[in-house]
Each structure stands twice: as structure tokens, then as C-alpha cells.
Fold each of these.
Amino acid sequence: MPYKILEKRELGDSDILFEMVLETPLIAKKARAGHFVLIRINETGERIPLTVADYDREKGTITIVFQVVGKTTKLLSHQNIGNEILDVIGPLGNAIHVEKIEDPIVIVGGGVGIAPCYPQAKELKEAGNKIITIMGARNTGLLFWREKMRAVSDELIICTDDGTEGIKGVVTEPLKDIIKREKVAYVIAIGPLIMMKFVALTTNGSGDLPKVKTYISLNTIMIDGTGMCGGCRYPTLDGQIFHACVDGPDVDGHTVDFDQLLKRATRFLEEEKICLDAYDHACQALEKYKEENM
């Protein structure tokens, strides 16, 4: 059955970040923080994993947030309220473990990774935990959900690379300050691979800071989401092999071989560019046809 788009809005001051609310009553009934869904827009489309950014069991909806980076996400951004998505499969992956802990939990969200941080902060806060949230982006135009995150955080820190909002600099700077000033139960970091790598390096105990358990999300390397295709296999530093979709997507950041993952992330850049250029060309041709014949 197709899944209807009930709400759609642009996020931040850019035209590349979007939020959608989908009518998915069965998925909403079971969704938890940490879960993801697989989306296929139409019969000829590819499947992409998107983390559940929010859910409403009473309304039977889930919220997804995505950034336009390739052909599929661009096509998704062109869908409007009332349109239907062919396939939405989930919830998949492992939900986070939620319990009340004495020490504070630090949640670090970078860019579009801010969205999946929200349900984790929400569920952990509802369990009675102290939540310190750090939000980071390249500039203020790429920041979003400030008030949503503030509502589920005891402390909210904002960083931008260019200093257009909050602290000028990267998210690891305020993270270091927090770890210096108080004992932290653990850190959750979701965002670009390079950001998660440096968060894990900050908390691995190799410098002058104590070691702090750190979880990172590997949803971006998943394909079929069930462990069958093997596309989301990732090596650990001690040589073990795991699958992000069934062993994660949230995993121990201190065990991940980030250098290998960063190399993998650039493997299909040329193919992605070819697909996006072809899609843009087809869209331009259609617009031209409409102008000339309608």
C-alpha cells in the first residue's frame, strides 16, 4: 500500500533540508528512537534508509528529515502533500536502550543528524535523565529544530563552523568542556562520518580527557536494511565484521574503523553525479515542454 505525505516543510534557511510527516499507522505503532525505515518512492526507484526522526502513535504518523544529496533525495524533495510514496518499510534496526542514569548524557547532532538525535533525547529525557545537547552545522541556515531540541534538553549548545550562530567552531570543543567539568554517562553522536570520527577520538581516552562510552550511527551505509545484501558490513579496529542494519544502526564509536568508512563514502560519487545530472536534465526538459505546449 502507498503511504501518503501529510506534511512537508523546508528546514533552516536552505533549500536542501526537508521534513515530511508520513501516514504509516503500523510503523508508528512500533517505532522507537534508533529505528529507521527504508523508502522507495516509485517502481523504478532505489531504496534509501532514513532514520525515524519522530513518531505519533495516536495519529499513526512518522516524521522523516532528509538532505538533498543525490537523485533519490532530490526526487523525494519534489513530492508534495497528498502525494504517495510506494514503499515505506519498518521500523528496522535496534531501538536504543533507555533507562535512568545518575550522570548526564551528552547528545551531539551534526547537520541533518540533528533530526535522529531528537527521539533519542526525548525518550531518554522522559526516563528522567539529564540531557546535554550540542547541535552543530556549517552555518545558521543549516540549523533546525532548535526549540524541539531545547524542549527535551536540560542544556542546549549551538555551534556553527562560520560563527553565524552560537559558538564558532566544531562540536568537539564544547564536548571537551563538558567532559572536563563533570562526569558523563555516555555520548551519542549522529551526523557526518568525519564529525562522528572526531567525537569518538575526543572521548576515547587517548588524550588528557577520561574515556567516555560513545555511540555513533551508521545508517548512511545501509542498503537493504535486513542484513541480506552485505552492503552495510563494517570492520572494527580489532578486525571483526558487523552489519550496521542488524547490529546497529547505533554502535560503539570506539570500535569503528572510520578511515575505512570514509574511503567507502566516496566510492560512488561519480555514479551519483551522473544520476543526479540525468535527473536534472529530464526535469529541465519537462519544464521546457510544458512551457512550449501548455
Amino acid sequence: MEITLPKSDIQPIDWPAYDGLTIHMKRDDLIHPKISGNKLFKLLRNIEFAEENKLDSIVTFGGAYSNHIAATASMCQKHGLNSIGIIRGEAPSNRNPTLAYAECCGMKLKFISREEYKSKNDPNYINSLKQQYPSSHIIPEGGANLLGIDGAMKMLDSRTSKYDYVVCAMGTGTTFAGLVKAAPSVQKIIGIPIHKHENLLSDIIKMDKTFELSPNATILNGFHLGGYAKWTPDLINFIQTFYLKTSIKLDPIYTGKVMLAIESLCKTSFFPKGSSVLFIHSGGVQGAVGFEERFRITLYK
């Protein structure tokens, strides 16, 4: 059964650093209250695959604060599928908001050691999971598979084709790959990795053997602020100020880093004057609650 998606709003962003440029934001974070942003798109074809093949469960992977885990649990509940989350690390004595929500959606959580978690993509480990859950579809961490790429292609539509640049956060590279494949040949796709991992292109090609990095697609490293889930006081200040001025929530793991990168690129004239830039808000704000609890920081004052 094909899943239909509502269209997300595209809104202008008025910010001092953007003088001479047109900066808009595609609010994919508002598509669904719990399955927001690129998580929904990457799960789209995976859920359809499970339904088409009459499978009754989804097995997937993530950390204790994973947006993907929360989204998968919610999506499975919505479509009447069982969900199993393989969680990196020991089971906490108290569930954080992400894991508590996943369990409320009916997801069964299986905690494994960080050492075992490194085998999450190993064919032998995957085969053992298939034997344990024979009627399941196994989705890699972050929805990083060919079906995820196919779903991410739907993030662009007739309204987005007019922009000179489309900018997105890069975790696994799945969303970036989908945007590159779906974009018009004249449109430039900019991916901003939020971690130190520099083999994203090879990871994408492992998912999609046909993928080619077009001349108009660029991966810009150097904006991760120290690595995955690393943050600085300047980032937190930016997120707080951005929310105060625009009422838009950014998260400190993905979208906050990318919007801060866009500001830096604007200030250094990366985008030519008169350019139009579209930032894809890929959601992830659900994880901000756990971030605030861990670090005792209020992001949205």
C-alpha cells in the first residue's frame, strides 16, 4: 500500500547574515508531530516494503537518544507492525524521553554492548537477527538503505525546483543521496556532515551501487564542532537566539549545526549575491528534550 504524505510548508527566514540572499526553510519537521522530517521519508518505502511482503515486524538500530528509533516505533504503531529496537549500550535504570516514547508505541527494546553494536552491519549478525525474527524487515541504523534513499527522493517536489541551492544535514548520507538523485541538473545540493566521518560517499555507494556524485553536489566538511553530538556554547546561543527571533526550533545534533554552517557560508560569500537557498529542516527536535535534561540547558527560551 502506497503511503501518501502531506506537503510541508516552505517559509522565508529573515536573518541579518542573509543580506542579499533569499533563504527559505522547508518545514519537514512539522509534517508529523512524532515522525518528523527526513525520518518519515526514509521509513516510507521501508514500511511499504514490509507491508507488500506481508512481514509483521520491523527490526532496527539506534542509540539511546535516536530520532530514528522514536520515528520507527511511531511509524510501526501507526501501521500495525511490531517493532524491535536494538539499542547501543547498557539498559539505563530510568528510560530517557526517547526510549520511553518508543516503548509507549509498543517497541521492544533490546540493549546490546557497544562492542556487539559494531557488528550491526555484519552479514552474519544480520542473518542471526533474521533467524530470531523470521517475519521481520531489518532496517539499518538511520534508515540507511536503498529504500531509505528512494523515500528521501520524495523530499523534493515541484515547489523546490526553483532554488539555486538545497542544503541538508548529513548523518548516514541517505537523505543527501536521495536529494542528489531527485534534484534538477542545474540545482546545487549541499550536504553538511554533523560528525567527523569522512567516508560518507563510499557509504552511500554501498547502499546504492548506481549512485554518482553529480557535479552540482557538494559535501562540506568542517562544521561538526568536534564530532557527532558534540556542541559548543556558541551553537547553543545560536539555537536559542534563532528560536527567539523566528520561533523555529533547531536541535543541537543536526539542524542547529547546519543552520550555523549556513550562516558561516553566507558571511564568507559562499553563496553568490542574489542566490536562493532552501534548507531542509529534517526534524530531530524530539531529541532536544533528552539533551536539555542531560546538560541542564534550556534551548527554547
Amino acid sequence: MKGKDLKQTVIEKYGEIARQSKDQAGGSCCGSSCCCSGPDYTVFSENYENLAGYDPDADLNLGCGIPTQFAGIRKGDAVLDLGSGAGNDCFVARALVGESGQVTGIDFTEEMLKKAGDNNLKLGYTNVKFVKGDIEKMPLPDNQFDVVISNCVLNLVPDKKKAFREIYRVLKPGGHFCVSDVVLKGYLPEKLRTDAEMYAGCVSGAIQLNDYLDIINKNKFLNLQIHKQKEISLPDELLKKYMTCDELELFRNGQVGIFSVTVSGYK
């Protein structure tokens, strides 16, 4: 899919999810693998319920990790969340930065921005804001943030090189990013990958883990670290359609597959 088409698809699908209630999203084709006519956007989601700052209204189960868990966010930090959605990770980050910090969320889906703004108004935070913008060209100044986070978003960005260049630009010297994202390991038959994208919407745009890490390294980030990996569990009936017994064994032992990873690096 061309970059412009992928962005439009993201806007349409995530706008549709934002217009639904959480219960509706969990039981519709945009949120449940039991509905065979649409992908499950929740298969990688993690449980946020015990985290400070958690707001159930802001959690649409669209993430693939908990980047704030490994981001080393401190009181007073300025934090940027890329693809902030309904505000879930922003509000968790706000609990970490406290009254003296600042949290900014950026998204280009109008419905998500409205949902996040409504949630923020309800919570009464004055040091959390949401701005509209494209991650490949953010309307934000250089050297502004101590920490950049993102959750299951960068894989959907067509030009990941531009995205990481922008992360580098907006970070303060010595600042760092911590992102959770979807990547591939090893060779996946093309038809399997296509069906996997239909099974889990967040697979779209995912690239090989080594290529992902190479993009980060080429953008001059230091101290690159993978904090966590989690494999998506695809149904056996889907795998057996496209894989031999040997290929299936490689998939099941983690040498080949679709993973969420949480990665950090420093400017």
C-alpha cells in the first residue's frame, strides 16, 4: 500500500474505532477476532488497570505494550506520545511527570483527538495537551522533549526513517525514546502475512526487526535496548494453510513470527 493510501486507511479505521464505545469496539469487526470480516486491533493489548493515571475511557485496547513501564519518565519531564489516540499513555505518563511536568500527545485522526480532549477535560489536567500532526513531519520545535513514547503506532507510519529523524529532532540532547511496536522475524509467506493483517490490524506496515533496529541506529541513537518481546498467537488453522510442518515449528519456537517489541534509545 502506498504511503498516502496507508495514512488514509489509518485515519478511517481509527476514526471508526474512536466513534464507538469501548464495549462496541471490543465486540465489533474492529475489535474482536471472533468477527471474521474484520481484523482484531486488540490482540497485542496489555493490562493497564493497576497503573497510576489509568483512565478506562482512554484505553481502547489498541496498544502492543506499555512503553511508560520502561521509559524512565521522571517528575518534571516533558513527554511526547506519538499517535496518542484517546490519551491512555499520556495520562499514565502524566502520573509520572506530576504537576511540574508536561505531556503532549500528537495524532492525525480528528475523532481520536476529540476523544482525548474530552477525556482530558473530564480529568482536569492543565499540563496535558493534544495536537494534530503527522509523525513524519511534526509541528513541534526542536529539542523540546525529555522522553518520546509511542504504542503500536510507528509500524503504521509509511516512512519510518522520517519518523525516527523527527523523534531525534524533537528530543532534547540526552533525551530518549521508548516505543512499543509490531515487527516481523524471519520469512512469512506473502499470503500468510496478508491474512495475518486481516486477523490483527496492527500488523499492517510492520517490517523485519533487524531492519527496524537498523533505522534507529542510522538515526544516531545510542544505547539501543530491547526491553520486551511478545509474540502474537495466530490460529493454527491460519498457519497450516500456508506453512509446512518445518516452517510451523520455526514459527512456534519464536524464530519466525510477528512480535511486539519495546525498544529505547538515547539522543
